[in-house]
histidine kinase
Amino acid sequence: MKSSLKKRLVFAFLSTILVPILAAILTFYLGANQIANDEDELDQLFTDVRREIRMNEEKLPNQDAFYQEIKTLLDRYQMNITIEGEGDEVLFDSRTYIEVEELNSFLPNLNTFTIQVAGEEDRKWGVTIRANSAQSEPFKRMTDIVHILLLSVGIGVLTLLLMVVIWTTYISRTVLTPLKQIYQATEEMRNGNLDYPIQYKKRDEIGRFIQGFNVMRQHVKDSFTKQKQYEDARKQLIASISHDLRTPLSSIKGYVEGLRDGVVRNEEMKQRYLQVIHDKTTHLDHLIEDLFEFSKSEADQLAIEKEVVNVVEYFEKQLIKYQFDLQEQEVELSYTIEPQPRSILLDPIRIEQVMSNLIDNACRYGGTRIWIEVRPDQSERNVIIRVVDNGQGIDKEDLPYIFTSFYRAEKSRSTQHGGSGLGLSIVKSIVKAHDGEIDVESESGQGSTFVITLPLYVNGEVVDL
Ligand code: ADP
């Protein structure tokens, strides 16, 4: 259940007030019930007083005689009585006979009752009964009431203290402890430890705040990690560029120096030297072109100019050209394009760049037979282009990284394929810019299959992949 901190505080506040009051009322109620049972004894006292006065009515004018008659009653109840006639004149006052004990009650008149007593011939007396001791029944009742009152107040105060202790502990646990944890976490963050999540399960205001804090911490951690990765990648990029540019350059330098220093003795050797220089400069040219494209794709500035083309016509035209070019390299390229009246919105030059990169890789990594398949997928919303080769394949551990810039599988590094490690990364950027996807399936020694999915152009709209 989601209980907000505000609700809990209001509940704490109200219960701290109400629970002690209820406890006091309950104590008083139970105690008063007990006292109510003594009510009969008080009635008995009044009956006894009435009967005794009536029985000795004729002796009333003689106070001494009257006192003798009712002395037993006064002793039994430990009380004094005063009898007043109709004109408020005092007819009898037992206090003249018994030494009056002062009741130490701090509530005066608590043990004093006045009753009316009717005698014969319509005579009426007002009788005041005063207890001499708060201990004798039924006057004890009044003392009991005071005790119960005190007990109720005591229990109320104790409950109040208990509630204060309980709520203080609770609030300190639910508010102060998490605050301490937050403080601890900020200290940890300040010291550079970003792996310090705060554990707090409740979904109240503090819980939401802590959740936000944890998200913020994760965010800061992620951006630190990204920053680090970016910096590492930059370092690696600079190292790779310098390495890849320097290798062909130093080789060219060597051959040029050879020519200059007259090491070349005949025309054939000269031609060989020039051929190497030409190959190396071509390679350098490719490298620089790749780098240029890569930097554009990194900056999301890859110029893409899309136009609607017919799937069959577009791919057929390209593949015929590659088929022809590859014949010279003794690579057999065959293809199948499923006939379809489909259109696709693409940048013809960029997608040609993609195809050229994949075919080029297939040849460079040992492919002698390349199989290309172009067909719509089952939903007929996308076109699938599969480029399959029978080359050296890609090791399982290299597979996840081959689309990463500058990544070259160990095998390709050790052999003289001389790639930049940028080709597939550029390919992926271009495919993504067409809202498409690229994937690879390969096994070492078993050839590779690159699969591109591009959304078709249906009813004047590019469909979602
Ligand atoms: P490179 O310029 O090194 O070819 P790419 O980005 O084009 O860079 O490819 C990255 C790596 O993926 C290559 O170094 C290579 O190891 C591997 N690779 C790409 N295409 C193939 C393929 N058809 N067969 C085997 N390995 C491949």
